[in-house]
Each structure stands twice: as C-alpha cells, then as structure tokens.
Write a structure and sequence with these properties.
5-stranded antiparallel beta sheet; about 240 residues; alpha+beta
C-alpha cells in the first residue's frame, strides 16, 4: 500500500523519505516488508503522502494498528452537529438549490430548490448520485443546455478526487461509470465557448424555462472523521 500511494503521488523513495524525515533505506525496508513500522511512523508517512483520513485509517489497519480517525455514517449520532450545520445552510439557501454530497457525489441531503431543479421528486433522496444525474441519459442531462462544458468540469473534479483518494476509492467506480456513458469520450474535443468568463455557468432548461447558475463548494474545517472530511455542500446562485 505504501508503494502504491507513493507512486500515486509521483514520489520516489527518496522524496518520501525527505518529506517524512526518515532514511530512504527505511522506506525501502518498509515497502519490501523487511521492517515493520510503528504507528507513529505510519502516521508520519501518511501525512507526507497527504493521504485522506479514510485512507490513513486503512494504512494503519494494514500495518496492524487500530484506526485513529472516526468513520461515521451520515445518519449516526456522532454526525448530528454536522447534519444540523448542513441543514442551516440548506434551509437558508432555499429557494436556490443546495446539495450535501459525499466524496463519491452521492446526494446525502438536498433542499427543495435542488430537488425542483433536478426533478428528482423528493425533499431527501439519499439514493441519488450527482454524477449519474449529469452523465447518464435522462431529464437532468437533457436539461443541461451546456452539458459538454458542465460534464467536462465535473470530470475534472472527479479526476482530481481520484488522484487524492486513489483509484480504488468509491469515486473511482463512479468515474468509470461516467466514462462509459454516451458522448463522454468526445468531451473536450470541441472549441470552448466560455472564454472570458470568471465562472462556468450551469445553464438548465426545464419545461421551456432556461435558468443560469454558478456554484460555490463549502467544506467543514479541521475534520477528525473520514466522512466529515469528504462532505461538500454545493450551493447554486442565479447567474
């Protein structure tokens, strides 16, 4: 696992050793199994590799240690304060759309404005995935006037997420699903029409009514839980 993450970050053993302030020989011995790390060494290497909290827990478990960061479900009592804060943001932003997403773009919560925009029909729909809605044939994809540009941007966000979290993360599977959808292989081949814009708008047509939006992405500060680190709140503003 250490070798996989080092390569994912584009680091040599010497690079990792310098960043973690250990010898490159020790890094080599750890990767080959000739030496066993302490829990502190695992945490130091994970920090040097800028690994997300969930993957840091996985590295600790692989080395024979207990995870140190929480890994709670969205509906768990431990996440009550996070849910309450997210609810305040979503409620205050209505009637403009706002969504709570996990790292794989699953919709954990959405306000009424978001559900109206997506046409998904219910005020809370944890089975929805924003990537599937945008990339898979259906009313959301059909309603996106500038689908090529929005899909290209969302693909960029997914690639960056996979770079951070690893190709074996749930987001990796979501991205592969998106790549298999019609028209995705041609993304980016045409000329861009958004030169000179500060933000890429999301242009949506529902029932013959065209609306334009830009978005902001909010995350929680100083997370000590894997899900809390991954959550983002996407808010749409009229453009």
């Amino acid at each position: 696992m250490l070798k996989q993450w080092r390569r994912l970050r584009g680091m040599s053993q010497l690079d990792l050793a310098l960043s973690a302030e250990v010898s490159s020989r020790h890094v080599s011995f750890l990767e080959s199994g000739r030496a066993r790390p302490s829990a502190e060494m695992v945490r130091r290497l994970a920090e040097a590799l800028a690994m997300p909290l969930r993957e840091r827990n996985g590295l600790l478990v692989a080395a024979g240690f207990a995870p140190v960061f929480g890994d709670n479900d969205w509906t768990s009592p431990q996440m009550a304060e996070i849910r309450r804060a997210a609810g305040i943001i979503l409620g205050a932003h209505d009637p403009s759309p706002a969504l709570v997403l996990d790292a794989a773009f699953n919709v954990l919560e959405a306000n009424s404005g978001a559900m109206a925009l997506l046409g998904a029909g219910a005020p809370a729909a944890p089975s929805l995935n924003l990537v599937d809605l945008v990339f898979c044939p259906g009313p959301v994809r059909d309603g996106l006037v500038n689908w090529d540009e929005v899909a290209l941007y969302l693909m960029h966000r997914m690639r960056e997420g996979v770079r951070i979290r690893g190709p074996q993360s749930p987001l990796g599977a979501v991205m592969q699903r998106a790549l298999a959808q019609p028209g995705v292989s041609q993304l980016g081949l045409g000329a861009h029409t958004n030169q000179g814009l500060v933000l890429l708008p999301v242009v949506f047509n529902a029932g013959g009514v065209e609306t334009r939006w830009f978005t902001t992405v909010t995350s929680f500060g100083a997370p000590q839980d894997a899900l809390a680190e991954e959550i983002t709140i996407e808010q749409f503003y009229p453009a």
